[in-house]
Amino acid sequence: MHLQFESRDINGYYSIKKEVEPLLGDTDLAYDCSGVISTDCFASPKWRHTSNINYLRDDWRVGMKWRYYGAVDYEGAADVSLIDNDGIGSYSFIDVSGSYSFTEYLTFTGGINNIFDKEPPMVGNTVASNANTVAGFYDTLGRFVHVSFNLKF
């Protein structure tokens, strides 16, 4: 029985400034969207990261991923839910996966994304991209189970 620590990594992003200049060359109209959500700014937390950890044991691999999105402030007056909640708080999603290698050519993989079935933040219709949330950024599918076979030849 051989247990091996395969990998541990963190991939982070820190936004110092995300300047938008709606009229090119007119810096008086420029505004900063870093850490803000509004009708002019897509939700963009100052800090977000993905962290992975994987373990190997013989032909088995088990992994966990932590997806983190920092809080964003709301700049506006139309969305009552965002005003009441002081914007969108920080969000974490946990994914787990595992695989078994039958041979060097055939591997089975399975996993669960958003294992705790965390709901995405609800926002009003003035900043929502789909289903009263910020789709494409936060996990809108909820818990998601996946399996696959990989055949190399």
Compute the number of helices: 1
* Extended strand count: 10
Give the distance, in angstroms, between the N- and C-terminal Cα atoms.
Answer: 28 Å
Radius of gyration: 20 Å
Widest sheet: strand order?
1-5-6-8-9-10
Task: Report on the biggest sheet.
Answer: 6 strands, antiparallel
Assign the structural class, choosing from mainly alpha, mainly beta, alpha/beta, alpha+beta, or little secondary structure: mainly beta
The residue-averaged pLDDT reads 88
Portion in helices = under 10%
Give the H and E element order.
Answer: EEEEEEEHEEE
How does this structure look, described?
The chain is mainly β and 153 residues long. Helices cover 3% and strands 44% of the residues. The chain is built from 1 helix and 10 strands; from the N terminus they run E-E-E-E-E-E-E-H-E-E-E. The longest helix has 5 residues, at 80-84. The protein is elongated and about 60 Å long. The two termini are 28 Å apart. 16% of the residues are buried.
What keywords describe this structure?
153 residues; mainly beta; six-stranded antiparallel beta sheet; two-stranded antiparallel sheet; 3% helix
How is this fold's topology laid out?
Elements: E1 3-14, E2 19-20, E3 31-32, E4 36-37, E5 47-57, E6 60-69, E7 73-74, H1 80-84, E8 91-101, E9 106-113, E10 144-151
Parallel strand pairs: 4-7
Antiparallel strand pairs: 1-5, 2-3, 5-6, 6-8, 8-9, 9-10
Question: What's this, in brief?
Answer:
The protein is mostly beta strands and 153 residues long.
